[in-house]
């Protein structure tokens, strides 16, 4: 009885002659606990990709970034991560509230190495959990279903140049996102952000787009 494969997977595997290989990989690689090696890898990263499912059954993939250790392994079955201020669409959070099933891809482009994790998410605004992360709007706990390590041979090697200055830090005030200084969003952003935008000065759409095209790190 497979934890990963359904009838459609079996049909494709049989057509390609890979059923036995798939079974062997699942036998060796598929885990139902987060061991110390996986914990160390996950907590060493400063980013991961989050897959959620929306109200129409469509998958959505989102990049989540922070400082190393922002994803915390609480025990062999549970991890948590923050949701910081975004663009207000709340796609990931809304999807998880509606359907807790999630997929997480933890990947290092320097080693290279990757772990895929399936689980069930729970979105919380519990002050005790929010206190773990400066300026987090939500904290997500994920109960593990399965995780497995993938072959890294197609992972291209890249190196990180610097951390995003927008990740909340206890050492400094978090700067306002540049796009929140655009005039046409002033009536829909929060009052606090609107005040910050007024103090910083408004910017024109053309200037903002030009900065993005030029690769400005803070655009």
From TrEMBL:
The record's listing under InterPro entries reads: Pyridox_Oxase_N, Split_barrel_FMN-bd
What range(s) does the Pyridoxamine 5'-phosphate oxidase N-terminal domain occupy? 35-133
List where this protein forms a coiled coil.
none
The domain of life is Bacteria
Annotated protein name in UniProt: Pyridoxamine 5'-phosphate oxidase family protein
Q: Which Gene3D superfamilies match?
A: Electron Transport, Fmn-binding Protein, Chain A (2.30.110.10)
């Amino acid at each position: 009885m497979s934890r990963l494969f359904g009838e459609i997977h079996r049909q494709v595997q049989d057509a390609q002659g890979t059923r036995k290989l798939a079974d062997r990989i699942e036998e060796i690689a598929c885990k139902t606990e987060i061991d110390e090696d996986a914990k160390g890898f996950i907590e060493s990263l400063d980013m991961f990709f989050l897959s959620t499912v929306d109200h129409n059954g469509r998958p959505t993939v989102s990049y989540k970034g922070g400082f190393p250790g922002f994803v915390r392994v609480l025990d062999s079955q549970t991890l948590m991560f923050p949701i910081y201020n975004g663009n207000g669409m709340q796609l990931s959070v809304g999807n998880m509230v509606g359907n807790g099933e999630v997929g997480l891809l933890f990947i290092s482009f320097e080693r290279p190495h990757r772990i895929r994790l399936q689980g069930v998410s729970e979105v919380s605004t519990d002050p005790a959990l929010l206190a773990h992360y400066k300026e987090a709007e939500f904290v997500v706990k994920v109960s593990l279903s399965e995780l497995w390590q993938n072959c890294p041979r197609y992972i291209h090697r890249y190196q990180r140049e610097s951390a995003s200055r927008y990740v909340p830090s206890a050492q400094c005030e978090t700067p306002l996102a540049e796009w929140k200084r655009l005039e046409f969003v002033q009536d829909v952003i929060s009052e606090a952000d609107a005040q910050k935008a007024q103090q910083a000065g408004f910017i024109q759409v053309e200037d903002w787009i030009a900065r993005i095209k030029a690769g400005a790190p803070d655009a």
